[in-house]
Design a protein that fits this description.
The protein folds into 2 domains: about 1-225, Alpha-lytic protease prodomain-like (Up-down Bundle), CATH 1.20.1510; about 230-320, Alpha-Beta Plaits (2-Layer Sandwich). Helix content is about 65%, strand content about 10%. It has helices spanning about 1-35, 40-65, 80-110, 120-145, 150-160, 160-190, 195-225, 230-240, 275-295; strands spanning about 245-260, 260-270, 295-305, 320. Strand 1 (about 245-260) and strand 2 form a beta hairpin. The longest helix is centred in the N-terminal third of the chain and has 36 residues, at about 1-35. Residues about 1-10 and about 315-320 have low confidence and may be disordered.
Length: about 325
């Protein structure tokens, strides 16, 4: 499991570093092209790539911070700090990426400036499309490797590693933005109407705002705390219920403390004939078997509790509570 986790981390870093290097180069080229041609949509795309570069740096920083070991103040570790930085990325995409694009589009529509020679824009857009396409291909392959047979959208909602789907979302938005910018620049020259370029900038802003909303929604769920995969929860329940000395499982509650770390709290009704020593030995046996079966489980809490005494926090019996 340790080797698999390290391998997954390395692949995730490759995706982030690939996107970072591509975006830095693309941002510089876009700003130069915008300065030479006066294109509003190209300037918006430059800021888009610059924001994406900052986002990759924040995710790499978040991954590093999340690897810190548990201590007295944070007994379950710092894994969820990565979720905080993912939420910051969503805010930046909206506030900077979408905000600047909306502002540039409105400014160009209010005070249109005729575009100069579009050749530079087309060259830069073509190069940017190739680089973004390469980064997007890497992100798609890595995400497809981890999602298995699950659908793409379901895999995004179920994913506990924000770095994987954030890069995928950002690269998809970048490719869409490049197409919109190219269409806007072409139409502005074709019909000699520079305001079309401003409209293209507004469309790019709308794309970024939609992506930011999706990222914020997923990051919020991870920050609040999401349960483990339902299949894992049910398998844990089945294993505990099948243990000698357990008469019933009241509830199995889980929460991700990091993308690859799960805390499990189990309430089970033990056989009344068990002595205290036998009960302690049974708990130890249950914990050992669960750790062997599910290496991602970082902490286990097993509480012997009668069915009638177990509630879900609302006063209702917890025998059917999973999570």
């Amino acid at each position: 499991m340790a080797g698999a986790t390290i391998g997954k981390t390395i692949r995730s870093n490759i995706v982030l570093f690939g996107a970072l290097f591509a975006n830095v180069g693309i941002a510089i080229a876009k700003f130069i092209a915008a300065g030479l041609t006066g294109s509003s949509s190209m300037l918006s795309e430059g800021f888009h790539s610059l924001v994406d570069s900052g986002n990759q740096i924040l995710l790499l920083y978040g991954q590093r911070r999340a690897k810190r070991p548990a201590d007295v103040q944070h007994p379950f570790g710092y894994g969820r700090e990565l979720y905080f930085w993912a939420f910051v990325v969503a805010i930046l995409v909206f506030a900077l990426g979408a905000g600047i694009s909306f502002y540039e589009g409105w400014l160009h529509i209010r005070s249109p400036e005729p575009l100069r020679d579009p050749t530079v824009n087309y060259v830069v857009l073509g190069i940017a499309f190739l680089l973004e396409g390469s980064s997007w291909t890497i992100a798609v392959r890595e995400f497809a490797r981890t999602k298995g047979e699950v659908g793409w959208w379901d895999a995004v909602k179920a994913s506990k590693d924000p770095a994987s789907f954030i890069v995928l979302f950002e690269d998809s938005a970048a490719l869409a933005g490049l197409l919109v910018a190219a269409i806007g620049i072409w139409a502005s020259h074709r019909w000699l109407e520079p305001r079309i370029d401003g409209v293209a900038s507004l469309v790019i802003g709308a794309i970024l705002a939609a992506v930011a909303a999706l990222l914020a929604r997923e990051a919020k769920g991870l920050l609040i705390g999401e349960r483990a995969d339902p299949d894992v929860v049910e398998r844990v329940r089945s294993m505990v219920a099948a243990s000698d000395g357990v008469t019933a499982v009241n509830h199995v509650r889980t929460i991700h403390t990091a993308p690859e770390a799960v805390f499990v709290a189990i309430s089970a009704d033990f056989d009344d004939d068990l002595t205290m020593g036998q009960g302690e030995a049974l708990i130890g046996k249950i914990e050992q078997s669960l750790r062997e079966e599910f290496p991602e489980i970082s902490s286990i809490y097993v509480r012997p509790e009668r069915v009638a005494e177990s509630t879900d926090g609302s006063g209702q019996p917890g025998a059917t509570t999973n999570g």
